[in-house]
Amino acid sequence: MFFGLFDSVEKKMRTTAVNWLELADRIFHYRRDVLPEKDLAAMQEATGSLRRQLREKDDAGKLKLGIETLEAVLRRTGGMHYPKSSFTENIEFFLVAAIVILGIRMYFVQPFKIPTNSMWPSYNGMTPEVFATKADEPGPAARVVRAAAMGARGRALDAGADGEILVPIARQARGLVKYREVPGRTWIIFPAVNREYRLLVGDRWSTTEVPLDFDFDWVIREAFFPGYQTLAEALEAKFIRGEFVDKDVATPTGTERVRFVRTGKQVRAGDRVLSFDILTGDQLFVDRLSYHFMRPQVGDGFVFRTDHIDSPYMQDMAGRQLEQYYIKRLVGTPGDTLEIRETALYRNGAPITGSKAFDRNATREGRYPGYRATGILAPGRTFTVPPDSYVALGDNSANSQDSRYWGTVPAGDVVGRPLFIYYPFTQRWGPAP
Questions:
Q1: What are the structural domains of the chain?
Q2: Is the pLDDT reported for residue 135 higher than 80?
Q3: What pLDDT, on the 0 to 100 scale, is given for residue 3?
């Protein structure tokens, strides 16, 4: 301990002697069945002698000689217990630490990162900060600070030719910017899947890659169509006005006919087409203990695994079951009847209570978009929660794949509730809402 720095030489040596005797006792109990009688006798004689010295309060010099005699015996008889190499001690330390961490993670508190914005604005997934001009972009020092405090990672696209910026639209899903999945890396070494997006200027593509869960539609809406709440609304208005163009263009897979939405923004070769930072999602601790002693409550932030949710929405592109952690808000427990009327959610015939997010969505307060009636909660439909199941919806109902699409959460897959946002270091840091 820190205050041991001020102990006398005598006291320090007595403490050291006690530690050596504890080690000798451990070796004796572990190895007495395999040690020769001669070695056992030597160990007992050396430990007995050192104990007598402690009782008789011998000075530091005599205690040091007694310790050295005992150490020589232990070095000869200790086996795997003594002497230990520094490598062995380090391995044991890390193994014990790993066991403790895994135990805490399994039964008490688990770290969790929110990747998407299905719970925005209550919880943030990865969000963009779009810069209107090159002059608005943070400088080198600011980038270092933003990276440390907010996990900010910059992206920039420059024009390869003169012309209007055109955004390719996926024909099979109007409202989504066209992309392709490409291999990438997380933390430089871990394999990952990214999305590659391409904007056309003249006959040249400007390309960027972003994480698979990042909402690039948000970037396009904010950069080129800021007057609309969603990109889907902007595209619908553009479609009505005929502000689309179809072109045969070269793509990574060959020549392809692509539909573009016109942005109306003209640039010259070398100009900045688009610039934005990707801000990391909320990273929080999840309380895994409480739900062992009480049932989840309507209104709770609700973390669960997707392993046993049987739905096409819970499969990857290869048809494999998604085995991930999701966070939504608990809105229905076994026996509850749910319904969405306009922007409000009803539980058992009355407006739902238990969270401020319910009230804010009902009135579309601030950035809350209101609940959208679709799927099992389509207009005019009600849904009764079956036994041993829960219904979970995202606060960002217009941009949330939740129980409306893939059904209920099995009770056995419930993990816990959000406890504390520990990163990024913004105004959101602190107890989870």
A1: 2-77 (1.20.1270), 127-279 (no CATH), 282-431 (2.10.109.10)
A2: yes
A3: 43
